[in-house]
Inverse folding.
């Protein structure tokens, strides 16, 4: 799923499953929504910065062309991505590893309980959603870097025609229902 969708679905999950926390702590909600976006922010930022620094080499003129390059190579040319930018691919697997996030969650638990809980909800739900929505190169590797065992999801979201249209349509309907039931 794209980044905004991860955030929007996480908020719905929270409204439905843990409405008490949502109502009582805006801080919790904002932090967990940030955590919902974090796996993909951590994944793509180093790659975008690298391309910005080497834009001449790859014939990239502006931010828009860098962004298109990232989308194209990660969605449509994954062999090329794996060959030319193996380090970037590794970052993807690290940031989407259940093992790594569990280690980080336990570290957070030492600092604060609510931070741990918001990480669990936001980051955890992102990783879980990705498990179902990738059956390609980016299939979830839950135990990375210990091993490369991967779970093949039901679909790869960007290979589904009109996925975003259906997804945002569903989001819109769900938000109407939530606001209506309020
Ligand atoms: Zn992701």
């Amino acid at each position: 799923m794209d980044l905004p969708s991860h955030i929007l679905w996480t908020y719905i999950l929270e409204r439905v499953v843990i409405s008490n926390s949502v109502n009582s702590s805006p801080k919790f909600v904002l932090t967990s929504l940030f955590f919902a976006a974090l796996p993909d922010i951590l994944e793509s930022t180093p790659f975008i910065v690298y391309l910005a620094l080497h834009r001449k080499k790859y014939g990239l003129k502006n931010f828009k062309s860098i962004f298109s390059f990232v989308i194209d190579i990660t969605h449509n040319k994954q062999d090329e991505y794996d060959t030319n930018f193996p380090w970037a691919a590794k970052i993807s697997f690290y940031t989407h590893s259940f093992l790594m996030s569990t280690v980080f969650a336990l570290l957070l638990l030492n600092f604060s309980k609510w931070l741990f809980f918001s990480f669990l909800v936001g980051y955890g739900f992102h990783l879980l959603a990705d498990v179902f929505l990738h059956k390609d190169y980016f299939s979830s590797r839950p135990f990375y870097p210990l091993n490369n065992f991967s779970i093949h999801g039901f679909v790869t979201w960007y290979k589904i025609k009109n996925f975003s249209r259906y997804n945002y349509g569903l989001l819109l309907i769900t938000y109407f229902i939530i606001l209506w039931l309020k």
Observations:
- The chain is about 75% helix and 0% strand.
